[in-house]
Design brief:
The chain has 166 residues and is α+β, with helices and mostly antiparallel strands. Helices cover 33% and strands 32% of the residues. It is built from six helices and eight strands, in the order βααββαββαβααββ. Strands 1, 2, 3, 4, 5, 6, 7 and 8 form an eight-stranded mixed β-sheet that branches. Helix 4 links the parallel strand 5 and strand 6. The longest helix has 17 residues. The radius of gyration is 16 Å and the shape is globular.
Length: 166
């Protein structure tokens, strides 16, 4: 059942900026988002970009050593979120980059919150055209091990994620 929740235009702009990898200056690349979280607005009527919960490409190697571990730490332990993660990985054949849509619904989140986020998921997914990978995660055990993301991206063909061997 749809919840009637709408998607803020800023969410769509962020998605399009992450999806389109146009050739850019080094400064522009550093400002590109590696990961971002989205949440419901305080009135529960819109999906919005969660302020302060993002990782920029320029942060990697500066304030962020491991972007995947940093993304996992952004997830609130007792609340739901939607996320986009720009995964960089290698298979035996090639290097790849893919956006992963993450639906974070930890067991410890209130049932009503999980229901609103679950029923609003289609609203945001419809705006994110071209997403190949969707991952529903229900707890830290599901997401802390980077090999779980590697499975989503390409099964046993993935040999490294974010430059770290599996």
């Amino acid at each position: 059942m749809a919840s009637g929740v709408t998607v803020n235009d800023e969410v769509i702009r962020v998605f399009n900026d992450m999806k389109v990898r146009k050739s850019s200056s080094l400064d522009e690349v550093k400002k590109r988002k590696k990961a971002v979280l989205f949440c419901l607005s305080s009135d529960k009527k819109k999906i919005v970009v969660e302020e302060g919960n993002q990782i920029l490409v320029g942060d990697i190697g500066e304030t962020v050593d491991d972007p995947y571990a940093c993304f996992v730490k952004l997830l609130p332990p007792n609340d739901c979120r939607y996320g986009l993660y720009d995964a960089t990985y290698e298979t035996k054949e090639s290097k790849k980059e893919d956006l992963v849509f993450v639906f974070w619904a930890p067991e410890s989140a209130p049932i009503k919150t999980k229901m609103i986020y679950a029923s609003s998921k289609d609203a945001i997914k419809k705006k994110f055209t071209g997403i190949k990978h969707e991952w529903q995660v229900n707890g830290l055990d599901d997401i802390q091990d980077r090999s779980r993301l590697a499975e989503k991206l390409g099964g046993n063909l993935v040999v490294s994620l974010e430059g770290k061997p599996l």
